[in-house]
Amino acid sequence: MKRLPPLKAMQAFEAAGRHQSLKKAADELCVTTGAISQQIKLLEAHLDVELFKRLNKSVRLTEAGRACLPLIEQGFELLGDAAAKAQTYSEQKLITISVAPSFGAKWLLPRLEQFRRKHPDIDLRIDASTRLIDFAHDDVDISIRYGAIKEKGMHVESLSHEELFPVCSPHLMTQCASLEALSDYPLLHLERRSADKSFPGWAEWIEDNGLNKDAFKHGPRFSMSSMVLQAAIDGQGVAMASSVLAADDLKTGRLVRLFPQSLRAKYNYHLICTKSLSQRADVVKFIDWIKQEILA
């Protein structure tokens, strides 16, 4: 067997080549730029070939660097697959799941007991966050996100499409005389979506139904969907509800749907993990379970 170059040196080269930047590679690997440069020089000395052209403020792969980078990337992916395969034989089954706080509170948390009863040998750790997950370094196995998929080269499962429609507490009203009559009630707004057409809300629903926008600008603003729905349950106004997040509240009667008109969101919920981890037995069981539950 040929003597392999140092693993750290290949890791530094792979990151620098992928980013075309020593600084970005250093940030990713949590080391200094000097340490990345030193590791690359070590690899070049081992291979006796120049892998990067050093420019004033940047680096550029040489022909040799461009030729070997894809193979090294594949090698690290195979190492990940091997580690994931070994983990399938581990007796401890713990899945760390990163979920957006509102999805965790309104949809996942009420169903965790169902999963535990079905799979008592699998423990779940829930991390409420909307940050972009770095699966190579973060202690996270699965992320569940809404919107455009930003992670590259991952295993992605589409979970559910989302529709949006007006809801309120039955204590506020059980039906609305007309669309125009909504302007008599406070509207509860999800502020983080207000400027993004990819995430339709009150403005788009009002426009879609031919109503006067100026009559519907009033009402409090919230930064989380779960807060909007809770304010509606408390009778504070009318919310533009997600069909996914409001499902349980509609089923139990805590909220009522006011009109049949709805908006189809551009994006949906996705489950994201590495391709190697998607083959792990406990992860497969969780994916199968959540896909069945969210469509139930």
SSE layout and pairings?
Elements: H1 7-19, H2 22-29, H3 33-47, E1 52-54, E2 59-61, H4 63-87, E3 94-99, H5 101-108, H6 112-118, E4 123-128, E5 142-146, E6 155-168, E7 187-190, H7 202-208, E8 221-222, H8 225-233, E9 238-242, H9 247-252, E10 256-257, E11 263-273, H10 281-295
Parallel strand pairs: 3-4, 3-5, 7-8, 7-9
Antiparallel strand pairs: 1-2, 5-11, 6-9, 6-10, 6-11
What is the total domain count? 3
Assembly status: single chain
Low-confidence stretches: none
Q: Report the structural category.
A: alpha/beta
Percent of sequence in beta strands: 15-25%
Q: Alpha-carbon distance between the termini?
A: 54 Å
Strand element count: 11
Using the coordinates above, name the CATH class of the largest domain. Alpha Beta
Total DSSP helices? 10
Overall pLDDT level? 87
| CATH architecture annotation of the largest domain | 3-Layer(aba) Sandwich
Task: Supply Rg.
Answer: 25 Å
Pattern of helices and strands: HHHEEHEHHEEEEHEHEHEEH
The CATH H-level superfamily of the largest domain is: Periplasmic binding protein-like II
Q: Which range best describes the helical content: under 10%, 10-25%, 25-40%, 40-55%, 55-70% or over 70%?
A: 25-40%
For this structure, the CATH topology of the largest domain is D-Maltodextrin-Binding Protein, domain 2
Overall outline: elongated
Q: Outline the biggest β-sheet.
A: 9 strands, mixed
Brief overview:
It is built from 10 helices and 11 strands.
Please describe what this structure looks like.
With 296 residues, this protein is of the alpha/beta class. It folds into three domains: 7-87, Arc Repressor Mutant, subunit A (Orthogonal Bundle); 99-158 and 269-295, D-Maltodextrin-Binding Protein, domain 2; 161-267, D-Maltodextrin-Binding Protein, domain 2 (3-Layer(aba) Sandwich), CATH 3.40.190. 38% of the residues lie in helices and 21% in strands. The chain has ten helices and eleven strands. Strands 3, 4, 5, 6, 7, 8, 9, 10 and 11 form a nine-stranded mixed β-sheet that branches. A two-stranded antiparallel sheet has the order 1-2. Helix 7 (202-208) links the parallel strand 7 and strand 8 (221-222). The longest helix is centred in the first third of the chain and has 25 residues, at 63-87. The protein is elongated. The mean pLDDT is 87.
